[in-house]
Design goal:
- The structure is a single chain.
- This protein is α/β, with parallel strands linked by helices.
- The chain folds into 2 domains: 2-181, 3-Layer(aba) Sandwich (Rossmann fold); 190-403, Rossmann fold, CATH 3.40.50.
- It is built from 15 helices and 19 strands.
- An 8-stranded mixed sheet has the order 12-11-8-13-16-17-18-19, sandwiched between helices. It has a 5-stranded parallel sheet with strand order 2-1-3-4-5, with helices on both faces. Strands 6-7 form a two-stranded antiparallel sheet.
- Strand 18 and strand 19 (372-380) form a beta hairpin.
- Helix 1 (21-31) packs across helix 10, helix 5 (76-82) packs across helix 7 and helix 11 (215-226) crosses helix 15.
- The model has no long low-confidence stretch (mean pLDDT 91).
- The chain binds cytidine-5'-triphosphate.
């Protein structure tokens, strides 16, 4: 048994020289226990014959959007529904642009539009085409939409150039897909995570914010995804690349974040409030830019809504995890927050000390819940995130034994 055993994979092949590697990929996917159906663009059929893939996948190969015979047997909608995963390998720059634009002018692009299954994209192209800002922007956009981008890698290219753009080796693609279906500690659960700072407008050009980088929240989103969860991330403005998640929402202010979180909370099993939400915002932001006419000015602030408390008090309350950033009496304040906001877990870190926290790559946490606590010593945020996700999963499953997938 592998993670791919019994999985339905639609392998989409587009027209590049790396198409020949898709033959080996088909064989590896089938060896790993997956059922494979191949959909090729017309350009791909110029590189490798559909017959090759028919033999290797043991299924008819799909090339036509409007072939009535084939359409009735298994057209784009049936294929889209059949798939547990759509894998485009190799994906040309052209096809990536098409995916981004949402075009549906052939079987494969239409299938990608119609499917609700996750889509993985393994790009392969000339290195200059890969570096082109248009391609980079398209790939970023696909990633933001939750598609998994596999590779490319660096090396010699068929055109004689050397650089980024080679298709990942078929074995590596196969391994990555295996981790996609990993039955981790949060498999089958929906996890909603807030991250980053918020910006509270003073006028159209100025705002109040804080030093949060978003690194901890993004690392938690990655770790939860890795643990098998369907992750929705609501993030304030950060300078980070978006992590691989099911659903990503970008917001600015505490009020925007409140709306976005409350909109999604009823379908979440677990909420992790890692955002550094502003506690106060300007009471009356100016519509016009404020001129520096006065020698002093007074800014009146009002309290923002406490998102964490609202989540914890919501009707279909998820398992609720809050963060605390403290400059003193860390453990006492963390326990007080646990009780005051009726939380399931509080993860507390020092700020203004050497134990990590805001803007740092490392962090250390004191984690408490009713009846227990743990210390996670100073380590990279990725490691801390993986440890915290394991703790959250343990506490969650202890509270919800019926939903325990193991
Ligand atoms: N939080 C929130 N909404 C707010 C403010 C904070 O959801 N308007 C959440 C953060 O996402 C984090 C936790 O509350 O999970 C952080 O609390 P913290 O700011 O440390 O403390 P507060 O509860 O705001 O109280 P105080 O600042 O007085 O310690």
């Amino acid at each position: 048994m592998t993670n791919l055993t019994g999985k339905h994979i639609v392998l989409g092949i587009t027209g590049g020289i790396a198409a020949y590697k898709a033959a080996e990929l088909t064989r590896l996917l089938r060896n790993a226990g997956a059922s494979v159906r191949v959909a090729m663009t017309h350009a791909a059929t110029a590189f490798v014959s559909p017959l090759t893939f028919q033999a290797l996948s043991a299924n008819p190969v799909h090339t036509e959007l409007l072939d009535t015979g084939e359409e009735s047997a298994m057209g784009h909608i049936s294929l889209a529904r059949w798939a547990d995963l759509v894998l485009i390998a190799p994906a040309t720059a052209d096809f990536i642009a098409k995916l981004r634009a949402g075009l549906g002018d052939d079987l494969l692009s239409t299938l990608c539009l119609a499917t609700r299954a996750p889509i993985a994209v393994a790009p392969a192209m000339n290195q200059a085409m890969w570096d082109n800002p248009a391609t980079q922007e398209n790939v970023r956009c696909l990633r933001d939409r939750g598609m998994r981008i596999l590779g490319p890698e660096e090396g010699g290219q068929a055109c004689g150039e050397v650089g980024m753009g080679r298709l990942l080796e078929p074995q590596q693609i196969c391994d990555e897909l295996g981790s996609f279906f990993d039955n981790g500690v949060l498999a089958g659960l929906s996890v909603l995570i807030s991250a980053g700072p918020t910006r509270e407008a003073i006028d159209p050009v100025r705002y109040i914010s804080n030093r949060s980088s978003g690194k901890m929240g993004y690392a938690l989103a990655e770790a939860a995804t890795q643990a098998g969860a369907k992750v929705s991330l609501v993030t304030g403005p950060t300078a980070l690349n978006a992590p691989r998640v099911h659903d990503l929402s970008r917001v600015e202010s505490a009020a925007d974040m409140y709306r976005s979180i409350m909109d999604k909370v009823s379908s979440a099993n677990i909420y992790i409030g890692a955002a550094a939400v502003a506690d106060y915002c300007p009471a009356a932001p100016e519509k016009q830019k404020i001129k520096k006419n006065e020698s002093e000015m007074v800014l009146t602030l009002k309290k923002t809504q406490d998102i964490l408390s609202a989540v914890s008090a919501s009707e279909k309350r998820p398992f609720t995890v809050g963060f605390a950033a403290e400059t003193d009496q860390l453990e006492d304040h963390a326990r007080q927050k646990l009780a005051a906001k009726s939380l399931d877990i509080v993860a507390a870190n020092w700020v203004g000390r050497e134990q990590g926290g805001f803007e740092n790559d490392d962090n250390a946490l004191f984690v408490c819940w009713n009846g227990g606590h743990a210390y996670l010593p100073l380590a990279p945020k990725k490691t801390i995130a993986e440890q915290l996700i394991r703790l959250i999963a343990e506490r969650y499953h202890a509270q919800n034994p019926a939903k325990n997938p193991r």
